[in-house]
Amino acid sequence: MADRYLSLTGTAPGRFLTRRLGLPQPAALHRWSPDRPALDGPVLHLTAGPSSLDLAPVLARTGLTVTTRRPEVAAAGDPGAGGTRPADGAARPAAVVLDATGVRDVDTLAGVHAALHPVVRSVAPSGRIVVLGAPLDPADHHQSAAQQALEGFTRSLGKEIGGGRTVNLVRLTDAGAAGSTLRFLLSPRSAYVSGQVIDVLAAAGSAPQADAPQADPGRPLAGRTALVTGAARGIGAAVAETLARDGARVVVLDVPQAEQDARSLAGRLGGTALTLDITAADAGERIAAELPDGLDVLVHNAGVTRDRRLVNMPAERWSSVLDVNLASVLRTTDALLAKGTLRPGGRIVATASIAGLAGNAGQTNYGASKAGIVGLVRSLAPRALAEHGVTVNAVAPGFIETRMTAAVPLFLREAGRRMNSLAQGGLPVDVAETTAWLADPASGGVNGQVVRVCGQSLLGA
Question: Region entry Disordered: which residue ranges (predicted)?
Answer without folding.
Answer: 70-90
